[in-house]
Amino acid sequence: MKFFVDTADTNDIKELAATGLLDGVTTNPSLIMKSGRPMKEVIAEICELVDGPVSAEVVATDAEGMLKEAEELIAIADNICIKLPLTLEGLKACRVLANKGVQTNVTLCFSANQALLAAKAGATFISPFIGRLDDINVEGLDLIAEIRQIYDNYGFGTEILAASIRTANHVKDCALIGADVATIPPATLKGLVKHPLTDKGLEAFMKDWAATGQSIV
Ligand code: G3P
């Protein structure tokens, strides 16, 4: 499973990239707003920090406008992935970009049929939003399982990028279902390593080691 971080905060991205565990980055207009920085500047910086796909989202609502914005964004770096909304206009733009070999991430997916359309439009990634479905009492993970089955039924190459992840259990459950990628907020991603028994065990080992009076180097 690939791990993307869902943020436009370059300090968090730097820290996570240094672990060697980061496969890409996703951003959206809300995350750009939160960064307080000009979009193109922050996206360019992120593209230098990671080798993998960096999703940059268009904001036009018609295919022509989306494609114009995509041209601007693609010029920033080779690892740009154009993020498009799951609308008919977004799917039209997705097909054009896919035919040109541009990576695409179709976002705001809330149904299996929407995911089927994105795969048919040649999307590189489909982003089903788990947490926002959970928020309205619909089981977000069921959507991941449905998309997995449909894509496997037909051999679609579109990767399932589980988004709107809120908890460590979301990550584990997406991995069990077989999502290809999870895009995770920085704090949740850093939290995956934590277990109280790891901390307790390490503390005991350190204490016993100190009692031996030895050193390895
Ligand atoms: O990047 C899209 C998605 O991950 C947003 O998550 O928490 O705003 O629903 P959230």
TrEMBL record:
Enzyme Commission number(s) of this protein: 2.2.1.2
Compartments in which it is found: Cytoplasm
UniProt xrefs under SUPFAM superfamilies: Aldolase (SSF51569)
Annotated keywords: Cytoplasm, Pentose shunt, Schiff base, Transferase
Pathway recorded for this protein: Carbohydrate degradation; pentose phosphate pathway; D-glyceraldehyde 3-phosphate and beta-D-fructose 6-phosphate from D-ribose 5-phosphate and D-xylulose 5-phosphate (non-oxidative stage): step 2/3
Catalyzed reactions per annotation: D-sedoheptulose 7-phosphate + D-glyceraldehyde 3-phosphate = D-erythrose 4-phosphate + beta-D-fructose 6-phosphate
Active site residues of this protein: 83 (schiff-base intermediate with substrate)
KW Cytoplasm (keyword) present: yes
Protein family membership: Belongs to the transaldolase family. Type 3B subfamily.
Role description: Transaldolase is important for the balance of metabolites in the pentose-phosphate pathway.
Protein name in the entry: Probable transaldolase
The species this protein was found in: Pseudovibrio brasiliensis
